[in-house]
Amino acid sequence: MPANLDELVVRVADICTYKWDMVGKRPLAFLISSFAGGAMVVFGATLALSVSAGVGENLAPGLANLLMGLVFMFSLVIIMMSGMTLVTADMYIGIVGVFHKRITWGSFMWGILLGYIGNFLGSMFFMWLIGKSGAYAAWPWMAKSHAIAVAKTGYGAIEIFVMGIVCTWMLQTAAILFVKAEGDMARIAMAAYGPLAFVAGMTEHCIANIGFLALPLFQQEAFLEAAGRMGLAAPVILHWGFGQYGWAHNQLYTLLGNIVGGILFVGIPFQLVSNPKRVEMIYRSKTSFMGKL
Amino acid sequence: MMDYSPFNPVVWGLFLAFVVSVWIVVRLFARRYPGYPGNMPDKLE
């Protein structure tokens, strides 16, 4: 039987204690776990690019999104099953831990910052490797990755912020139901739903976007050269900074939206819907306060 | 073009409101259930 809501928030608080114990006592291990988690997210971004390049919009406008979501969905499965760290999944865990007095506000923010740094390094490093490989330097993949980046960095601040909220609302709902589920198959199904929903739903995820936007930037020179050879008129020039078509512009507002979505629409509702009296009864018989994913 | 500025006032205003409201919700919860969750070891972190 899957856990009920009261058992669920206690499980999440136990996971919080385990994770933040690592943050406090073994920060390097936590950083490595975040590095691995970040790379695992962009495994999905790479696969999504691989299968969606060249899929014509006249075939069906949402088909490329569906294909991307279907191959991306195993990213969260491998992160959760391996117990590695994804900062956007830790946001709901941390806020439940704050309610349960497992961690302070300060350590919550420190854990999120360290998780983000590790995820950033992992996803950026993996995409740098892919950029160096040249495997995605053929026209259909360069054109698709450039088109994705132009769309994502071309949105205004409010649009990115809103789609960032929607992203972690979907993703962390799946992540918390992963904790609720019993058995590997049920857990895999729950974890798979999150990335499928947020990628097919065209939302904005800070770690996935690091990869989605870094690859076309790493390959921009080759793209412009190929576009020139094909006689394409003035393609959009991407850049790393703030402003339209900038990597940092998308990253900033995606991150802010992701923080709001996971905490306000997943962590807090689950905590407030659980019954405090029943949770206290569960605590009365508890002897262990740590739980792994 | 405020839409592409890193200091978009609408987004930062909403984010600030979010931070304050989360802090208030946690404080109100702790006041409503002062012993919550109970039976905790003294030092977990």
Describe this structure in words.
The complex is a heterodimer of chains A (293) and B (45). Chain A has 13 helices and no strands. The longest helix of chain A has 29 residues. The mean pLDDT of chain A is 94. With 45 residues, chain B is an all-alpha fold. In chain B, 53% of the residues lie in helices and 0% in strands. Chain B contains one helix and no strands. The longest helix of chain B is centred in the middle third of the chain and has 24 residues. At the A-B interface, α1, α5, α8, α12 and α13 of A face α1 of B.
Which short descriptors sum up this protein?
heterodimer; A: 293 residues; mainly alpha; Glycerol uptake facilitator protein; 76% helix; elongated; B: 45 residues
List the helices and strands and how they pair.
The complex is a heterodimer of chains A (293) and B (45).
Chain A (H helix, E strand, L loop, with lengths): L4 H21 L1 H26 L10 H10 L1 H9 L4 H13 L5 H29 L5 H16 L2 H24 L3 H17 L5 H13 L1 H10 L17 H27 L2 H9 L9
Chain B lengths: L8 H24 L13
Main pleated sheet of chain B: none
Indicate the CATH topology of chain A.
Glycerol uptake facilitator protein
Strand content of chain B: under 5%
Mean pLDDT across the residues of chain A is 94
Shape annotation of chain B: elongated
Order of helices and strands of chain B: H
Report the portion of residues of chain A in β strands.
under 5%
Question: Mean of the pLDDT scores of chain B?
Answer: 89
Largest sheet of chain A: none
Largest interface: A-B, 43 and 28 residues
Top-tier CATH class of chain A: Mainly Alpha
Give unreliable regions of chain B as ranges: none
Order of helices and strands of chain A: HHHHHHHHHHHHH
Ends distance of chain B = 46 Å
Q: What CATH architecture label of chain A applies?
A: Up-down Bundle
- Helices of chain A, by number, come to 13
Radius of gyration of chain A: 20 Å
Give the fraction of residues assigned to helices of chain B: 40-55%
Number of domains of chain A: 1
Q: Using only CA atoms, what is the Rg of chain B?
A: 18 Å
**How many beta-strand elements of chain B?**
0
